[in-house]
Queue: 2 jobs
Job 1
Amino acid sequence: MERAMPRFEVVMMATAEIAHYADPTRRSWERYCRRHSYDFLLFDRKILADMHINWSRLEMIRRRQRASRAEWIVLVDADTFVADEEFTLESLVAPYGDKEVLFAPDAARRFGIWLPLDLKGLVVCRTRRPPNGGFVVVRNSEFGRYFFDRWMSLARGPLRHMADRHPRTQGILWKGLYRQHRDRVAVMHGEVVRCGTNRLLDRISLDQAGAFVLHDKRLTLPGAPALAERGLVQVTR
Ligand SMILES: [Mn+2]
């Protein structure tokens, strides 16, 4: 019997230089995908030689949009890992109805209030929860393909001047895509929690209760302990 097509395909880019934190996070995603019968793919090198590696992550998704038969493609940063393995991707997308692109928020919920991580995001997107490019769920649909194609063509064309300036892919998303397509784009709530951007504030105020995924900047910092050694104990429930 032919294997049923998975509804979800999770894709990560991790080059050898970041293996010290990407090996454990990749294992976390592999274990999670095996458990729920999702596909998992790792790209281990840069694809676009002429642009910052963040653009290769986008190109990776564009290629999967043409090759994959999954219903949804999930782009995960190498500094994300699964904090709640029971939680399914089906239940992640369900609350967002007919939205076709779902982003993690570029914001932290501190003392119960959403605060953007970057004021530029607040100003350009006019919301306290602008989208974050580190975790994206995209329906493998005509609109999903259009969205990523447009993202890339803005970076190569009219918004070229922003393509290699911080926050790169995210800056172009904010400027040229988010508000233009709000009807089909959603920014999620507390499912994916960005942490490690402010050590002190995180300790006293970050609300990560019920998080499915942690997007942990600390993993990428020099001298950070590996994920496996720290365990997942920082998730409070
Ligand atoms: Mn990241």
Note: The radius of gyration is 17 Å.
Job 2
Amino acid sequence: MNKYSVEPKSRKELRMLARQIRKNLGIEDQLYFPVVELFERLPDIYQDLECQIVNDFELPINVHAITDIRAKTIKVKENVYDNACKGNGRDRMTILHEIAHYLTLCELNFTLARSFDEERIPTYCDPEWQAKCLAGELMMPANKIKNMDVEQVMKECGVSWDAANYQLSKI
Ligand SMILES: [Zn+2]
């Protein structure tokens, strides 16, 4: 996805969007984001979308999950899915990251433009940054975690130490 740039979005805008998505899902007051449930339910909400759990060998070794925005397919490795079901923070984030790509680019229609290789994409226009930011904001709402420490955020939100630490640094 790194050859593309998207219309600019600030963290503030993505934070507001995350809040709206949580509201639409009816989980405003719930801290632990139901990632696996959403992954399974998403094709019922968006009928063009296909969410697949694939054999680990179907994707390259360093790819845990992938979203094809043209085919409207999210593929998640079986191993990642299984670990997410067990509550592994990193795997939960991997799945939500792909969902964030799908929502921003396919459903909310953030405008995507092809960018030339030599052109540096500003962070706020980078689809990878936007998906990472939105997934983080969905899993760790700023207004709810602002008085917590890293360990509390890890436990309450079901995220990794790195994710909790990063998100707290952005509040
Ligand atoms: Zn990505």
Note: The domain at 4-140 is CATH 1.10.10 (Arc Repressor Mutant, subunit A).
